[in-house]
Amino acid sequence: MALPTKKTTKRRPLRWVALIFLTLLLIFGANRALNWLGDLPVVTLKEVSIKGTINHVSSDALRAVAKQTATGNFFTADMKSVQASFENLKWVRSASIRRVWPDRLEVTLEEHEPLARWGTDALVNVHGEVFHADYKGDLPRFVGPAGSEREVTQAYREFREMLKEADLEPKEVLLSPRRAWQVKLASGMVLDLGRVETHQRLARFVAVTKVAPDLRERKGRADLRYPNGFALKLTGPAPSKEDLSKAKITE
Description:
2 domains; about 25% strand; ten-stranded mixed sheet; single chain; alpha/beta; Ubiquitin-like (UB roll)
C-alpha cells in the first residue's frame, strides 16, 4: 500500500480552509440577498389579517396586537413572536400564523370555549384546560387539586349524562385532596359519592328519584357511600313515606 506523500498531506488542510471560506461566502451572500429583498417596498408588511370565530376578544385588543406585530417585512417577520403576542390575550387558546405574499400575515385564532368555573378565580374550557378571563355568564363550578382539571371535566360530563335520566343537573363537582367526589345539583341537593364506585352510587340515586320524584326538587344532603342504599338529610317539608320507600332517611 502506497503511503501518502508530503505533498498530498499538505493539500488536505488547504481543502478544508477553502471549504470553510466557501461556506462563509455563501452565508454572507444569502444574508446580503435577504437584506436586499427586505428593503424592497413590495415585501414590507402592510397587513395582519385575523381569521376565526371571535366572541370574547375585543376588536381593540386585536387591532393593538396586530399593529404591534406588523413590523419588519415579509421575510424577516418573527412568526413565533407574533404567535406569542396573540396567545397572550386572555381569551385566545391558540394562534397559527402564515405568510401571504407579498405583504400580509394571516392569523387564525381559536378562542377558549368556557365549560365551567375553576375554583374562585379561573375558568376551565371544554378541553379541560384552565385559563383566566372575565365571564359573567352562568356556569357550573369545578373544584379540585392542581393538575386534576381534565379529570374533573371528564367526571362532570359522565355525571351530567347519568343525571339527565332524572332531569337533574350538576351545578358543582368537587374532588377533594383525598380523591373523594361530591356533586351539588341545581336543586340544592348535595351528593357525597366517595372515592370508589362513584358511578354505581350515582346510578342508585337516579333510580330512586324515578320512584320518588319529589327528591328532584328537594334540598339537603345524600350520603351515597352505603353498600345497599343511601342516607338523606333533607331541608324543608318532608316527602311522603311512600315516595321514600327506596331510601334510608335521617332528618
